[in-house]
Fold these 2 entries.
Entry 1:
Amino acid sequence: MTLLQRLFHIPLFVPVQTLALASGPASLILARVGRTLDRMTPQLSAPSTPKERQAKGHIALVGAGPGAADLLTLRAVKRLQQADVIFYDRLVDPEVLELARPGTEMVFVGKHVGAHSWPQEKINRVIVTEALKGRRVVRLKSGDPGIFGRASEEMEAADEAGIPVELVPGITAASAAGAALGRSLTSRGVANALVLTTGTGCASDPFPDCTRLSGPGTTTAFYMSVRQARRLADQLMQKGLPADSPVDIAVEVSKPGERHFAATVGSLADVIAACHITGCAILLVTWPEGGVPTVQSQTAAGQTAEGPKAVTAV
Amino acid sequence: MTLLQRLFHIPLFVPVQTLALASGPASLILARVGRTLDRMTPQLSAPSTPKERQAKGHIALVGAGPGAADLLTLRAVKRLQQADVIFYDRLVDPEVLELARPGTEMVFVGKHVGAHSWPQEKINRVIVTEALKGRRVVRLKSGDPGIFGRASEEMEAADEAGIPVELVPGITAASAAGAALGRSLTSRGVANALVLTTGTGCASDPFPDCTRLSGPGTTTAFYMSVRQARRLADQLMQKGLPADSPVDIAVEVSKPGERHFAATVGSLADVIAACHITGCAILLVTWPEGGVPTVQSQTAAGQTAEGPKAVTAV
């Protein structure tokens, strides 16, 4: 079997003999990769047949990572290939959906920024309904499903219906932003803790105190916080972070519209307004041990950011 | 071209005509996957030739994820395939190394738990030395290189030598542990912030106050904290977390030796001792909003943990 057959468990319409006759290092590589993946994923099988569908359903909450198709894990790609139906929302890049089998049913459960998405309860209901039909359901979520992905609610709905549910982890936005900016999120003697938080709350807490954990020795990654930037910057300064402390803004990381901006805590809200940053962005603030920012990323304030798409903010 | 050729940019010794003649859904799938990955990774090229090596070197700090080969990203696999030399340490599973090309030079820079690793300065020096020879260097790191991966030091060494350096993000241990345990790390109305911290400090701060950010509305993921468990549990209880609050212990997530244990804050140190947990583990503590733990994972204290390898702790 080839790597593809092993990895995706899909019959490939090339005679196995042809591949077996292949020689040279490439065929060795493929055999080794295939064997490795085989051993690591013994539970996988081919896409379900109509007969199997009657017997069992399954829900996988799959992390799509930040956007780029090549930042999916191999396991996530396999789940997409095995799915009978995929529920996705606006944050999942169209490129990622192309990794599924053609003909896989795709259901869009959210609209674009600022418009309404499906209520969570409706999503819970439809994924369970599809699984109860015996189908393999993938709920594809931006980033990591366990981090600001509302996985709890979908897992509870599946559990109540007796549907097996699997979590497939993904690259969370903070990791992707740090990598794109060429900076580490933790650093010895500077930040020994990383806080992932959000400026966007829920109905019972619409304006969460998302800066409450920021302080000396931390990096804080603010998710979904662009609209709350002025409030959170004011809070950080009230807590003692100097106004000239750098803030990295990573917009649409790994997507075609990726942009990086360098601001300071004091200029954050103005930079966001001036640069028309409205959508999917991560704000990274390192508050160094000792309290005075000394380490900056490669997109430090006032310098030209690196990378072809990078922009230096005002 | 096949997916494999596009994905790994390695000549495959099968006539292209043979693949082009293939019909049916599988070949369509492969063409679509290949096109997608091609578009997303235009910067990739084949492994370097001796001539190219004279012209340029490159260092990629690549996240290997928690252990299982299928939890690498597609981009990480590509970097392994392109590497001339790979530096890895004890936390990287041998299965992952099999994803590299045969004949790739592999350098082990760390020893097993409790024994000495290479000093960081030596690692910095050798990766730069190899890149200055014009080689493609992969520094393969467990988890995400930007989270407790000492990426800052290796990036600084590369920058000082003028070597281009790339960060490839990986699945960090907290994400992997949450997924393995079937629990979300954040949850509306329970925990709106996630703290990643470590009980193992550096020379200047050997016993960091790793519980300082834990409090109502947080989940804390403690990395490298097994040996500090009694101290951190005492600190959590002193801060007001009830002794019967659940703690999930995820050991060697996604590796062959994976085990899950359920403890409470009060029993944590005793469970770790009784179950002989000494190595690579993540401790997850959710301190719910309102202060009283009400939500537990599927491996809640006192219940049999799920999964074939799971064990219920004392």
Entry 2:
Amino acid sequence: MRKIINDPVYGFITIDHPLIFSILNHPWFQRLRRIQQMALASFVYPGAVHTRFLHSLGAYHLMSSALSELRAKGVDISPEEELAAKAGILLHDIGHGPFSHALEHVLVEDCSHESISRLIMKRLNEEFNGSLDLTILIFNGQYPKRFLHQLISGQLDVDRMDYLTRDSFFTGVSEGVIGYDRILKMLTVHDGDLMVEEKGIYSIEKFLVARRLMYWQVYLHKTVLSAEQMLVRILMRAKELVMDGRLSPDGSPLYHFLEGPAEIDLDRFCRLDDSDVEGLLKRWTRHEDTVLSTLSSWLIDRRLLKIRLGNLPTPAGPLEETRRTVARNLGIGEREACYFVFDGTATNRTYDDRDEKIRVLFKNGEVRDISQVDNALIHQTLASPVKKFYFCFPRS
Amino acid sequence: MRKIINDPVYGFITIDHPLIFSILNHPWFQRLRRIQQMALASFVYPGAVHTRFLHSLGAYHLMSSALSELRAKGVDISPEEELAAKAGILLHDIGHGPFSHALEHVLVEDCSHESISRLIMKRLNEEFNGSLDLTILIFNGQYPKRFLHQLISGQLDVDRMDYLTRDSFFTGVSEGVIGYDRILKMLTVHDGDLMVEEKGIYSIEKFLVARRLMYWQVYLHKTVLSAEQMLVRILMRAKELVMDGRLSPDGSPLYHFLEGPAEIDLDRFCRLDDSDVEGLLKRWTRHEDTVLSTLSSWLIDRRLLKIRLGNLPTPAGPLEETRRTVARNLGIGEREACYFVFDGTATNRTYDDRDEKIRVLFKNGEVRDISQVDNALIHQTLASPVKKFYFCFPRS
Amino acid sequence: MRKIINDPVYGFITIDHPLIFSILNHPWFQRLRRIQQMALASFVYPGAVHTRFLHSLGAYHLMSSALSELRAKGVDISPEEELAAKAGILLHDIGHGPFSHALEHVLVEDCSHESISRLIMKRLNEEFNGSLDLTILIFNGQYPKRFLHQLISGQLDVDRMDYLTRDSFFTGVSEGVIGYDRILKMLTVHDGDLMVEEKGIYSIEKFLVARRLMYWQVYLHKTVLSAEQMLVRILMRAKELVMDGRLSPDGSPLYHFLEGPAEIDLDRFCRLDDSDVEGLLKRWTRHEDTVLSTLSSWLIDRRLLKIRLGNLPTPAGPLEETRRTVARNLGIGEREACYFVFDGTATNRTYDDRDEKIRVLFKNGEVRDISQVDNALIHQTLASPVKKFYFCFPRS
Amino acid sequence: MRKIINDPVYGFITIDHPLIFSILNHPWFQRLRRIQQMALASFVYPGAVHTRFLHSLGAYHLMSSALSELRAKGVDISPEEELAAKAGILLHDIGHGPFSHALEHVLVEDCSHESISRLIMKRLNEEFNGSLDLTILIFNGQYPKRFLHQLISGQLDVDRMDYLTRDSFFTGVSEGVIGYDRILKMLTVHDGDLMVEEKGIYSIEKFLVARRLMYWQVYLHKTVLSAEQMLVRILMRAKELVMDGRLSPDGSPLYHFLEGPAEIDLDRFCRLDDSDVEGLLKRWTRHEDTVLSTLSSWLIDRRLLKIRLGNLPTPAGPLEETRRTVARNLGIGEREACYFVFDGTATNRTYDDRDEKIRVLFKNGEVRDISQVDNALIHQTLASPVKKFYFCFPRS
């Protein structure tokens, strides 16, 4: 039982265990084929239409490599632990809905995609007769060999390594390329924790800088931000209209979520994908509500709101004035104009030291944080968040 | 007025003329963002989710390179001709509907995508006040400088060069790689026709072999064939149900086409994209008709029909017998079982010599067909079509 | 004991056995660092300066992959056999001298590089106390598991796979790229012989076509041929002058070989590398003999003889006449002019069916030659040699 | 007059002016074919055997791109200036001798390779009848349009862009990859100076980090340092022996330089290349002087001195003691033992702000140094030099 899947990034990905097959073939996993990894970033980077399905497979591939490198260095990993870690990384994004970055808290209000992933794993575990017990322990960080969890979720996890590599490949932003293969070879385990060998310092620094660049150049690109904010506002407007009885369900599984259910319905959630959002957007282009139809048309046709990005918030004066003009031009109220004219902030840290740290293991047994090594590139200022203010408004 | 677009295949694509911008920003062109180039091939090659939008841009980029190479060799090309050829290649796929390879004659019966492209160009030309006059002449092969048409549509056109390069990039089938940059440098014009310089012979041979490989390994991959045939049958069944009044329109623009209109309605056609097909497939998974719901579920969840590919047709006996078994198992009639059990043929030629030929211009002025050069790799047998027979049926 | 070597082609190459280390560190193997794989081809492809050292390591890497793929398919390969095959491929080129393609039978008259490799292996085996016993059996084709020998030397050996991949990488001739990773995954063993699975047919066809292209476009490129023939003639002239006592040894290890020894002296041979040839060429640019100094200067400064390549031999008339002109211009005799004006032939076969064949194993157990499969690209004509005639003479 | 050269890094490099051809074909430029760009780094990175010839061509290619990008942005560059800048970059490394990094001040004492390049350009200018007048002005920084000089030599010159890209390609250290194509598109000219547009900040930061990584991971890799120091000491010893009359010239052009001439002899210098050094090293392996022969053998066979790299200098005690042991073991004096046991320092700065700075031009016209932008990655500490201490000694 052995299957080989072509991947433009790594060449071939090998699947060789029945449990991995069962996950792969499950309709809920197949759903990830219909959810793009980078959502609206393809408006700026038209090659970036790859799916969460392939990202999950890619991360699984890197997990396989990481585990076999660690084993070659003498780290004790049983076949059960290996399988559980592989299943865990394959499922790490299963809880993502469509356009997740933008819609995460819009579709399902108080629930992160990680929590949904956890719920889904639990359900799958029942279906698979407990085969995911160990996976769930590791995923939740409850397993003593902490490095297994850290490989799934941490500053050096294979999730990040895959998405940076993959997003950089599909966008064509070659500067985001990280040396994932070298980093994998530099990983080690010390006192149960995942660490990097001393000679890997420069690779890690480059990894963090590549990540920084990808954030500002791609993920938080101002045009992408504008498109995402438009999408968020379209769905907020739709919710409002549903509430007011001005928009009625037409069979799309998305309506259930617009009605703001008390509790998440997994079966319904696992039917959602990008086509539902796109389908409604296209339908709404012809809705009677000006806000809903205008924003939907604009987004579908890529006539995006103009956006200004800067270091200071937009003063209330110009904001109000722009709203008044827009209200006049579109023949809508000033409250409605807030859907077209708004501000907000985008934030990123190059190295988040509050979180899991990146630990370097020196030859003499010493352990230091990557920001504490000699002549560190990653200094304190990089650990503090960078905040940018954006201001969106229609093109005149 | 200059815009640079990131492309993972060529690096950067430059747009620098208002007409090209107008085309690019037109909703009908933006629609191509929502139509995947390789449709269901991503079931086998999960990276292959790139769109017709990016392919069109890529072909435009190669056209720019080809024209400037030819000019550097002294071929006379005016700025107007250059612009017209670029607009032509940008629009060459505008008439494609969703899942075009499979659905081309299912959605719009007697109309190829080229004819639709032509209709759309005519409409756009009106909108753009005649700026596409020359483009249309070239596209239709009515312009005296034949090589401009041959660059858009011929055995060595930039369309093929881009799709082979791009499909090979996104599938990860590195063997499909062609030396597009070298071929472009080997192109020349003689007596108004596009030709290849003598020293380009090996590159052209390799191009044809790469194309042959991509056909059998990717485009006509048996799993892809199976998925495409399932999709075709789902839509045929839907048409039947619409006819019988058992399936009623719900707002999807696709229904109009299922009702089999007398004439193509461009405005409706240009609203269609992949999400419409996916949306209906998902909805139909819960339809009361067993054929429609079963096939739709299977396709959505990638539980594809088994397929056998061989050199001989399936004998009527086994075909009938399998149909009877399936009818019994699924509780449907034998006529309905034909939707699950069927045969057909897939055909491809390595070098189609009936069509536009590939002409080689020798240093001494002689012109020969690529299959007529000394020690030719491309011999007569490769010009005749290879036909393979497939047989599809449900997994037991 | 584990070392990782960076390779731009495959990423990382892992060495993990003491015997492999011993070979790698041996001065005779280190010598391969100073012998370029493609010799004078760098006159046309300036990136192609990679060494036989790296090619040997690359082939070793592919051997490791091939063996582990075969093992995963159930082929029985013991650790000893694995080690022996790896040592064998690492040493397969150890008998190459400098500028081997051109000088193979000029420096050491009746001795191919394979024979020298065999002699060297024997000597190393003594040094390594018999650790190479099994390697030698395999290398000589005397071991019952024939596929091990076929992986080292055969139509599908890892030597070819590496050199095609590597030469294509370093020359930048992207069209020479073969899908080595896919071919490795398609290999299988049947009745002790190396074969290709049915679904690998297209990959193999492409491999043969890529090889054909590399031969005519790179290895037998007319400028490369010209440079090689110049080098051969320089050494022939030097031999003549040594014989006549007009050129006396100055400490270069090369002189020993110019004196035409009765028997090969391994210790001396294993001191030879590219720098010896280059050193003498540079010194000879100032020798009193016009033939020697002129040809040496021209080669060092890349002022190569003009070369015409065609399908017919050069008639004796023009040849003689050109010689007379050159004799007059350079003030040398007509016999000497033959060093500047000469003809010859270059030959290559796309698929050499006299030799080891490429066997395809079909699912039904049938075995067919690659040129005998349905719709074969590799037809009979490609198996016959293509012969081209060249004619070299000085630029006027 | 148009020639296309294959380059594995950029694909094709176009030469289209007689002056560029004349430079290219000059024996002094052809000499660069025989000088490796990375010298002894190939002991660690065996793929890194590319030559200064190809690097010079690559930098020329980037210069062509940079100039045409700048022109497209409206920067005024005349055809004469373009040609002069291209000739300048092609010749920027012409003054390099063999193993230049290590031997720069050993072979020719008080003369940097830049000064030699200048002398050579002067001589070539005479040969080419003044065609290099403008090139020399630009190269020397005496031409009013300063950006032309800055493109040849500055923090953002095309020399660096090519060598980082190329060295990273040939070593296989993918982390050294810089986004040279994006950087080129971000260049601009303001008040006569080369600057970077605001949106290029992240690319520049990544460029500096990639450079930092390449220095510590490749150029100053401890094994490379050890090999270089061995080579330096071998030549110092040879000089000493020549002085003492214990080593006598044998025709190698290198001896002239070992005799320590008062003034540089260009004609002799331009005959030197790697093969001269390699030739002598090989010959010296059999010299009677233990220091010369031992170090030469070790270097040729890659039995390198062990090296320790740290933040502190080696104390005198252990140094002396090791020397005594080595003197005893090799039967040489303690003064001679200094050739085998020695310490030293390696230094690098990530961003050298004393030198030419990297200026960022903001949209509002403001100009800031890259270390002064908001949330700068390149902070003050990175501008100060990092110094590491090494200690070399024989393996026991």
